[in-house]
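Tutorial handout. Part one gives the primary structure; part two gives the three-dimensional structure as tokens.
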Amino acid sequence: MPALPAGEMTVLGLPAMWVAAALLLLTYAAVVSEKINRAVVAMLGATLTIVLGILSQEQAVEGVDFNTIGLLTGMMIIVAVSRRSGMFEYLAIRSAKLVKANPAAIMAMLQIVTAVMSAFLDNVTAVLLVVPVTLLICERLAVKPYPMLVALVFAANIGGTATLVGDPPNILIGSRVGISFSEFIINLGPVVVVIQLVACLLFHLLWGRRLSTTMRARAQVMAFRERSAIVDPGLLIQSLAVLALVVAGFVLAPELDLEPATVALFGAALLLLMSCLRRTADAQTRSVSQSLEAVEWITIFFFIGLFIIVAGVESTGLLDLLAEELLAFTEGDLRITALAILWASAILSMLVDNIPFVATMIPIIEEMAPTFGGEDRLMPLWWALSLGACLGGNGTIIGASANLAVAGLAERAGIRFLFLQYAKVAVPMMLLTVAIAMAYVELRFL
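Part two.
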């Protein structure tokens, strides 16, 4: 018996399209509510997609982008091993001392450090490494840490926009579309630099210029010994060598015919091997276990579940219909479509985590290829989606994973991140950064 067309499939007597859409919307709602761990929500939605017959298990496995999973896992392992050397604490302390422990200058310097780290590691990892040191510096300087932390949130999301590995939305887009590490830097790097400098200026005018401390407090920070943060010099050298090799691998991946996941996992395996040398078998087991435990498995399984849910929605033909509606709204004009995607991505990424949003948008944009003359003509839309989702995530606490990570660390330290308090400052600044991105997209790609 021939299979029914996607639009005619039924589940429990209802059109499969409705059921798949309901699963996706319920997943979104549960993630936004934060009542249940998002990995559990995604896994439940994914298994229901299979149990209800929207996808077979084989189709579900095919729907998972293992390049994204491998890239995330590999980079998480590299960071987990590298951080044991103390290199990231050294960098933060050294940055504070370079500006003579001046609070306003520290705010600007830590933003730049965070943005650069976010570009080459990922934004969540960057804030997890920088925020604890920032809290310590603020405590010694007797300045309120909240302005510093908000500035770091923005820096993490802005810096992460520049590269393939910097922000999960870029990993999703790059992996699905085949955009290389170099292409991200070349096409988005210039506007990211401009936006980050504008953000530094705005935070200085808003808070930085009013931050003050005593000479005694500054002397305490200047007394920090950054070299004491390096607890394993040998591991530091190994980590820097592997990180350099991995970045080079990302740049050369197209010429070497390698996927980013292969490069990241090779780097992770190499660094794990180097850290195991000259250790006993028991010590090797402990070292590898610590590194693997540091992987954010919640994020990994959230991605896996999300891929399956979106694949289920795609299989019903719903995303084709949404693509047609968007094209009808923009009348098939590439410029209007790109700008609509940019602003819609930015606004919606304030309200829902930008990861599931981008995962849903990717197949919608792919369906537009015939209208615009082929896949190559879609590049302005991919850059618009990346800029909108990554920058829009700054608008609210729930807009991006890095925001939630900073809020969590702050609350543990007794610093409250209230939704409206944050949004009051963040939304206008986010809209300004997206306006800059809009001008860049028009001038560069349209």
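Part three, for discussion. The longest strand covers residues 10-11. Residues 74 and 266 are 8 Å apart (CA to CA).
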